[in-house]
Hints:
It contains 5 helices and 5 strands. By secondary structure, the protein is α+β, with helices and mostly antiparallel strands. A hairpin with a 2-residue loop joins strand 3 and strand 4. The relative contact order is 0.19.
Amino acid sequence: MTAPRVRLTGVDEGMHVTVRTRIRGAEDGARVGEAFAVLFPDAPHVDWPGSPTYPNQQDVTLEVANVPLDTFLRKLHDQRILDTALDAMGSNLEGHTVMFSIERVAALAGKVTFGLPGHTSLGGVFDVEITGEGVEDWLLAATHHQGRAHVPRKLGDERAMDEDGEAVTWFER
């Protein structure tokens, strides 16, 4: 009998998680809040702005600290995108901090799609920052799956996706 898999949350694991987003123009703050709640339902309460009224436009940046990642990480497992998640989440590692973006439109549909660096996503993004000692090891554990017993992975290895998000082929031409 195998023991149940330990699911990480970032809470009480030495990681500090902050999620930021910017709501601009005619974007509906309530819908952004719905997308946020799909991926981070146990996050601290946020007062999301409503819909702007014509001709007024909004430009609001919201920051939520101490965000649990359990639902977000479960969705990565359910979607079976753990290697992609490792590459996307770890691509901007600096010291004890990783930063990555998640597209809000996909979140509203219950999916996780990572934003590509330099790409402006229609519908905006949630910028996630995870800080803590051992964040690289934490990412490897949070995105672990059984296939890594046969094909080990680490951040920035030769199996990582290209900077433009394309998969790297592992065979010789």
